[in-house]
Write a structure and sequence with these properties.
By secondary structure, the protein is α/β, with parallel strands linked by helices. It has three domains: about 190 residues, 3-Layer(bba) Sandwich (FAD/NAD(P)-binding domain); about 130 residues, FAD/NAD(P)-binding domain (3-Layer(bba) Sandwich); about 90 residues, Immunoglobulin-like. About 20% of the residues lie in helices and about 35% in strands. Helix 1 runs parallel beside helix 2, helix 3 runs parallel beside helix 4 and helix 4 packs parallel to helix 5. The longest helix has 19 residues. The radius of gyration is 22 Å and the shape is globular.
Length: about 425
């Protein structure tokens, strides 16, 4: 029997396996694709590892760093292996896998899920019109360009102003797309400021804020799209429709944690993050089952996702050694101006600060992030020169301020 099994061989899965091996645990890493590395393999732009390694690597370079470290520590990894089911048998978890070898049963005392996230599709945002060839998600275009050397189209419309959409726009420009237009319903881009500058403004790529695709036009192949201006609630404004000719439409309209597997085994799902609810060591509501990376919530930087994996590896060790938990867990709740937040509770009797990731719901300058008791008493404050919903915040809550409380509230103050 294994001490732990990590499901998912992307950056968070590799980091979790590294952390577990560094603690002397017997770990097996399971990946369904042919190669380890996950999404990093198709992200040839740089910016990975800036926090962990203090230098900017490309996706494949950072994946290589993690793989080399994992293998040097003796992590055993199997690829082309699909996890069919997981059952909690009390003293161990039973994992049924399907691979070219056939159906196998693996037993482990703990599981770390590192399944990442999936892209939201055009169907999920209710785009009208036909379903012709030439409609892609941004991740698929990234895969075609970077792994297979295929330019999917020449006249491209990109829907969505997030980081992936901006990065794909720049790459299409560099690969020879004749025309590119980026449209999004927000007032400004929803991604990191550095990507706005480096991917859009530096290359003069046209963009239209407060704009959406109302309808896709074309039968066999995309001929264009009907664009429309939107109001403050992102509803199309009648009379503003116009036809935009293009042969390719790329949707970059957000990521959703791959949490269905965890929901099936009884883990509680947070409606804000759309990932599993976790404690400070990223253990789900199912004991001995952990979740890390973009499966918990969508991170801006891979370094932050990797950090959750290292934290979770310590949680696995504590679980296996049956270390003491708090008699009364402390709830971490979002305030009025805070959106998705994780972890959502503190459960372990530990001395280390609690690391919390969240997104503000406002865009503002010179604000204070406050940790408050339910009666409004301010327990801890952190100053930020600027916050916005598109940028995740990270704070460390001193554990001693949680003593005697059932709940703390994290909020943003404009004053």
């Amino acid at each position: 029997m294994r001490d732990a099994v990590v499901i998912g061989g992307g950056p968070s899965g590799l980091a979790a396996a590294i952390g577990l091996r560094e603690k002397g645990l017997d770990v097996l890493l399971i990946e369904r694709e042919e190669e380890l590395g996950g999404i990093l393999n198709q992200c040839i732009h740089d910016g990975f590892g800036t926090k962990i390694l203090k230098k900017a690597l490309s996706g494949p370079e950072f994946a290589g760093y993690l793989m080399e470290k994992a293998l040097s520590l003796g992590v055993e990894a199997i690829t082309e292996t699909y996890v069919k089911s997981v059952e909690d048998r009390g003293e161990y978890k039973e994992i049924i896998t399907i691979s070219p070898k056939g159906i196998e049963e693996i037993r482990a005392r703990a599981i770390v899920y590192a399944l990442g996230a999936r892209e939201r599709t055009p169907f999920e945002i209710k785009i009208g019109g036909t379903r012709p060839a030439g409609v892609y998600t941004a991740g698929m275009v990234q895969r075609l360009l970077n792994l297979y050397g295929i330019l999917p189209g020449k006249r491209v419309l990109i829907v969505g102003g997030g980081d992936v959409g901006m990065i794909v726009a720049r790459h299409l420009y560099l690969e020879g797309a004749e025309s590119i237009l980026v449209v999004f319903p927000e007032e400004f881009f929803a991604g990191l400021p550095r990507n706005v500058q480096q991917c859009i403004l530096d290359f003069g790529i046209p963009y239209r804020p407060r704009t959406t695709v109302k309808e896709i036009v074309g039968r066999d192949r995309v001929k264009g799209a009907i664009l429309a201006r939107v109001d403050e609630r992102w509803n199309p404004i009648p009379g503003t429709e116009e036809f935009y000719p293009c042969d390719t439409i790329v949707f970059s309209v957000g990521l959703i944690p791959y949490a269905s597997n965890l929901e099936e085994i009884g883990a509680r799902i947070d409606p804000r993050t759309r990932g599993p609810e976790v404690n400070e060591f990223f253990e789900t509501t199912v004991r001995g089952t952990f979740a890390v990376g973009n499966l918990v919530q969508i991170f801006d930087y891979v370094d932050d996702a990797v950090e959750t994996a290292y934290i979770a590896s310590e949680g696995v060790r504590k679980y296996l050694e049956d270390e003491r938990r708090l008699e009364r867990p402390v709830r971490i709740s979002p305030g009025e101006l805070v959106g998705p937040i994780a972890p959502q509770r503190v459960e372990w009797d530990d001395s280390r600060d609690v690391i919390v990731f969240f997104r503000p719901r406002i865009e503002a300058e010179n604000v204070k992030i406050q940790v408050k008791s339910p009666n409004g008493k301010i327990l801890k404050e952190y100053f930020r020169r600027y916050v916005r919903p598109s940028t995740m915040e990270r704070i460390e809550i001193p554990r001693d301020i949680l003593e005697g409380l059932d709940e703390v509230i994290v909020d943003v103050s404009r004053h």
